[in-house]
Each structure stands twice: as structure tokens, then as C-alpha cells.
Amino acid sequence: MREQRKSSVKASPARVAAAVLATLMIMFVVPMPVYGVFTVAGAVVLPDQGTNPNFLASILVIKIGFALAFVLLFQLAAPALGGRWRSYAASWWLLFALLEIGKAIEPTYSAVEALAGIVSEAFYCPLSAMTVARLLIRR
Length: 139
Description:
Elements (H helix, E strand, L loop, with lengths): L12 H17 L1 H10 L11 H30 L3 H21 L5 H26 L3
Helix pairs in contact: 1-3, 1-5, 2-5, 3-4, 3-5, 4-5
């Protein structure tokens, strides 16, 4: 039987803030090249409503909320996870993938856009979880 590692999350406010900022940057930046590839391929078209700065600002606000939730929930879940950040990442990826599939049902969001989201989330969920674990878990 594999022994679980003892871990504790008693991070300082500065480390929590660093984890939130790092997660925000990962969740905001990683999708850009993925959506860029889909856009260059002609599969995804940027929204024509509003300006690009408004579009990016709205995405940033959404990602701030996700980054805060990601880090704060990690702190709560870390003792139960026993250092298994991959399980935490997989749970978030599943949540995001289902959100993308749900959005694809709407007439204003395509299946290809949902696929681009699922692909980008497959990168940024594990990267975010690994980063947060390294910043917050003490062994």
C-alpha cells in the first residue's frame, strides 16, 4: 500500500497572493496560443461585438474569479488530497470541459470553440495545480 505524504497548507498571505497571481497568469496566457492556432486555421472567429480590449477585459475578470477559487479551494482540499495535485487538476479540467460542452449547446458558441477551450484547459489546469502545490504545500 502506498503511503500518503503528509502535507500542510499554512501559507502566508504573500504566498497565497503569489499563487493567485501565478494561476491568473497561467489561465489568462495559456489559452491565447491555443485559440490563436484555431483562429489561424479558420476554425474560431474572434467576437465582433465590442472592442478587443473590452473582450480581453471581460476574460480577465472571469479568470480572476477562477484563479481565486482555484487557489482558495486548493487550500481547503490540500489535506484531503495528500499532495495529489493531479487529481485536483483533473477535477477542475472536468468542470471546465463540461462548461465548454454546455456553452457549445448555445447557438452563439460553436463546438470548435468548445474544443479549443477544452484543449487549453488541458494545459492550464495541470500547470496551475502544479504551480499552486509548489507555492503552498509544505512537506
